C-alpha cells in the first residue's frame, strides 16, 4: 500500500512539474510578445520623430533662404549716384562716365564689379581701375590714365603696351620718340623700343626714332644725330656690344660719328661725318676692343 502511495505522489509531482514548465513557457512567450510589440511601437515613434525633424529642418532652411533673399532685396537698392574720378589729361571724363553707366547691370549689391572693371580696363586710355561701393547707393570709380610713350607714325600714339591712342590735341607730345614699322605690330615695336632704350642707358644715347622696314631690318636714330644700323636679328646683343665699345673709347668721338653699323657678328663699323670709315672688332677671348681706321 505504501509503495502504491509513493507512485501516486511521483505522478502528481511530475504532473505539477509539467504544468509549471507550461506556465513558464506561456509567461515567457507573453513577455517576448510584449517586448516585440514595445519595440515595434518604439520604432514607429522614432521614425515619426525623424520625419518631423527633417520637415522642421527643411522648413527652417526655406525660411533662412527666404529671409536672406528678403534682406538682400532690401539692401540691393538701385544706384542713385556713380562717381568717376581721376586726373585726366587726354580722356574725356564725361565719356568715361557714360561708359560706366552703360555697363552697370544691377543694383548696389548685384552689380558685377569684376565685369565692369574688365570693360574699363580694356579701354586703351585706362591703365588702372579701382571700384568700390559706398553705402547706401553710391558707386565710386577711380581711374589712372594711360601715358603716351611714343608717337606711332605721323599721327598716332602708343601706350606702354603698344595699344594705339587717339589724341585730339597732340601739340604737347612732339618730343616723344617716333616708331615706324612696315613690318610687325605696334605691340612688337613698343617691346623693342623699351628694350633698346634700356640697353642704351650706359652709352648716354637717347633713342628718338626707331624704324623697321618691310624686310624686318631695324634702324635707330639717337638724340646726338647718330644712326644705328642693326639688321634683322639679335638686336639686343648688338646694342650690348655697342655699349662695350662705346665705353672703351668710342664715346670720345661722339661729335664726329655719323653712323654705327652693327650688322657684323663680332664687331661694328663707324662712318664719320667727314666721310671716313673706321672698324671696331670685339675680341671675346682677350676681352678687348681694337679699332682700325679706314
CATH topology of the largest domain: Rossmann fold
What fraction of the residues are assigned to beta strands by DSSP?
25-35%
What's the order of the H and E elements? Answer: HEHHEEEEEEHEEEHEEEE
**What is the number of E strands?**
14
C-alpha geometry = elongated
Mean pLDDT: 78
Number of domains: 3
What would you call the structural class?
alpha/beta
Q: Strand sequence of the main sheet, in spatial order?
A: 6-5-4-7-8-9-10-11-12-13-14
The radius of gyration over CA amounts to 47 Å
- Measured between the Cα atoms of the first and last residue, the distance is 165 Å
Quaternary arrangement of the chains shown?
single chain
Main sheet: strands, sense, barrel? 11 strands, mixed
CATH superfamily of the largest domain: Cell division protein FtsQ/DivIB
Q: What count of helical segments does DSSP give?
A: 5
Which stretches of 5+ consecutive residues score pLDDT under 50? Answer: 282-294
> How helix-rich are the residues, as a percent range?
40-55%
Q: In CATH, what is the class of the largest domain?
A: Alpha Beta
| CATH architecture classification of the largest domain | 3-Layer(aba) Sandwich
Describe this structure in words.
The structure is a single chain. The protein has helices spanning 2-75, 93-103, 113-121, 186-199, 235-247; strands at 81-85, 126-134, 138-145, 150-152, 156-158, 164-165, 178-181, 207-212, 218-222, 227-231, 257-261, 267-272, 277-283, 288-293. By secondary structure, the chain is an alpha/beta fold. The chain has three domains: 1-75; 81-145, membrane protein fhac (Ubiquitin-like (UB roll), Roll), CATH 3.10.20.310; 150-293, Cell division protein FtsQ/DivIB (Rossmann fold, 3-Layer(aba) Sandwich). It is elongated.
